Amino acid sequence: xxxxxxxxxxxxxxxxxxxxxxxxxxxxxxxxxxxxxxxxxxxxxxxxxxxxxxxxxxxxxxxxxxxxxxxxxxxxxxxxxxxxxxxxxxxxxxxxxxxxxxxxxxxxxxxxxxxxxxxxxxxxxxxxxxxxxxxxxxxxxxxxxxxxxxxxxxxxxxxxxxxxxxxxxxxxxxxxxxxxxxxxxxxxxxxxxxxxxxxxxxxxxxxxxxxxxxxxxxxxxxxxxxxxxxxxxxxxxxxxxxxxxxxxxxxxxxxxxxxxxxxxxxxxxxxxxxxxxxxxxxxxxxxxxxxxxxxxxxxxxxxxxxxxxxxxxxxxxxxxxxxxxxxxxxxxxxxxxxxxxxxxxxxxxxxxxxxxxxxxxxxxx
Length: 365
Hints:
Residues 198-265 form the BTB domain. This protein is of the alpha+beta class. Among the domains are: 42-165, Sandwich (Apoptosis, Tumor Necrosis Factor Receptor Associated Protein 2, Chain A); 183-264, Potassium Channel Kv1.1, Chain A, CATH 3.30.710. Helices cover 42% and strands 27% of the residues. It has helices at residues 2-30, 137-141, 184-193, 213-219, 221-228, 232-236, 246-258, 264-277, 281-293, 300-309, 313-325, 333-339, 341-358, and strands at 33-52, 63-64, 68-71, 77-88, 97-104, 112-117, 123-127, 132-136, 151-171, 200-204, 207-211, 238-241. The strands form three sheets. Strands 2, 3, 4, 5 and 8 form a five-stranded antiparallel sheet that branches. It has a four-stranded antiparallel sheet with strand order 1-9-6-7, with no helix packed on it. 21% of the residues are buried.
């Protein structure tokens, strides 16, 4: 009898132990998890300067700045201008308020932005079409230059976006190893820099570059055609690039290997031409964005010529709008009219479209 009771106790202890072990195993694989996410505020900032000469003598006329433009954090095109109303409220007020508004010149008037004016307290955040500052005229006059009475307004326009990262699932009891960051771009950059296993030569002007045929074929349909057909380049494994600055090609080469162009801001026009020639679609899009964000009255006609010549349709459309809205500010307009009459016709068409959009609609009876 005692032996029978002893065996039952042993089986009971073993059963309890097995249940506990099973519970632990189940919890480790299917139990609660810590979930982590991160919200980060991303910004894209533009600084605009508006100089109004002899501001102290202007008392009634409303003033409008040139049209500024850029892109949001997501790459969406936005254009805006500033409107200054010299007197708000009663005309007989000794120290009236001056109203400074931001007007949206593109179709996304609901785009949110943060607006600040250097030297003045307060900031606006909301839809750009509703931005307004009211400042006492006497205070603004204090900012005018004592030499010529000009007023310089410096604006800071910030487009923001809250970006959510995650969620990253981290098991409290899991021993899963965190994966290292990809080193693909770094590895390809080193492959190019060290001239490892190169099998083709590229001659540009007085310089010679070593590269890899497989990378060129994978990245560009134009280079692929050179090597996959019985052309001279395929037979000799040598390419000669005519009519290109070696420094520009060096940046093209960097993009082919790393998908990045470090000198894009100062080579946007030249890289746009190269991107179109060698069918590098992403590089072409990067050039369009760079030229679009940096467009001014001084660069607009050159940008339009390049956009038309190298089939950058979005850039061309936005530049036409910019010139149509700022025609009086274009410094080389007469010379441009003589050199590019076909583009002048398109600019005039764009001006006409703008007037039609602003014209009141007549209801039919």
